[in-house]
Amino acid sequence: MDKRAVPLGSVVSPVVVAFLWEGAVAAGLLRPAYLPPPSRLVPHLVRLLAGGDLWSHMAVTMERLGMSFALAVLPAVALGLCLGMWRGLRLALEPILTSLYAIPKIALLPLIMLVLGVGERALIFTATLTGFLQMTVSTMGGVLGVERTVLEAGRNYGATGWRLFRYVLLPSALPEIFTGMRIGLGLTLVLVIAVELTAAQVGLGAFLWTAGQTLSVQNLFAGFVVIGALGLILTYGLERLGDRLMPWRERGRDGFFV
């Protein structure tokens, strides 16, 4: 079986949910004014995409997401590796990271705006901070999770210094690093939408805000569908990249029970 094929359950389950939703509206269990059925939402979404307005909001959100993730990933991975390898640095910085991790980043937006001003820099920095902290913590955990026997085996084969890092430590921590990147990408998207809801005029978050203020339920659901689709595509894309870089990881991806 081709591992790149889409599992049947991943296709069937959304279709089943759509049919149940449509049936519940038809039976009067759900009010179409608040939960319009898929038979209405799909044509409305097609019209929005054909009109081009939704594409412009999507493009702005994707630009912000790309900048935020790009600014976060390299510093986060580098810092996480350093924290995992050097105990003194970890003891010094871990309390700060843990404290910042617990604070909702959207709550920092007013402070960030005071420092950076009202504009794109504040929005992007707020979204960047979320992904940065998640990827830093995950990378550090990946390094700390490398078994000592693996490191000792590498040393016994002559791997020391850079060679030990390059051929033993980094490959062993890489699955956890990619897990952190995948979660960090999703959280960054969430924060981009949140800051757009709060302090932006364009973007999918601003589109949702306008739809809510004008009581346009179909626009709201269209925005939800687009955001969910973006999250799904980006997450699976990053996961496939991880599969290419770490082919050994695929062996355990089906879980214990098939």
Automatic annotation (TrEMBL):
Residues annotated as transmembrane: 65-86, 98-116, 122-146, 183-208, 220-238
InterPro entries, alphabetized: MetI-like, MetI-like_sf
Residue ranges of every copy of the ABC transmembrane type-1 domain listed in the record: 58-242
Family: Belongs to the binding-protein-dependent transport system permease family.
One example of a Gene Ontology biological process annotation: cellular response to sulfur starvation
Domain of life (superkingdom): Bacteria
Subcellular location: Cell membrane
Keywords in alphabetical order: Cell membrane, Membrane, Transmembrane, Transmembrane helix, Transport
Name of the molecule in the record: ABC transporter permease
Membrane topology type: Multi-pass membrane protein
Cellular-component GO terms for this entry: plasma membrane
SUPFAM superfamilies: MetI-like
Keyword Heme: no
Provenance organism: Tectimicrobiota bacterium
Main location: membrane
PROSITE patterns: ABC_TM1
